[in-house]
């Protein structure tokens, strides 16, 4: 977890650029607002691909359901199911690895905890 926290602190905001290569150039994080449960979409470049990781953070131990969707031209990936997070912890919910060529991707993560929905969304790569 120390590496995850370090990467979390060092991640820069994703700058959406018209050039696909520039949009995939560095790490980025999209987070929900601060609260007892937060979602996060972590975007990292891995060689000729981009990796999107869905994360849940919690101040106290909790359980819930998640839905992670990544879509774009020719792509519609859906992951989901139950999750649990330890007090003060982070749970990795799912990871998707995609090519960096072509159009961008829309990434959406929703957490449902105690009947409340927390969401994160981002557009990764491509022009807008």
TrEMBL record:
Residues in CsgH-like domain copies: 37-120
Domain of life from the UniProt record: Bacteria
InterPro entries listed in its UniProt record: CsgH-like, CsgH_dom, Curli_assembly_CsgC/AgfC
Residues of the signal peptide: 1-25
Keyword terms: Signal
Protein name per the record: CsgH-like domain-containing protein
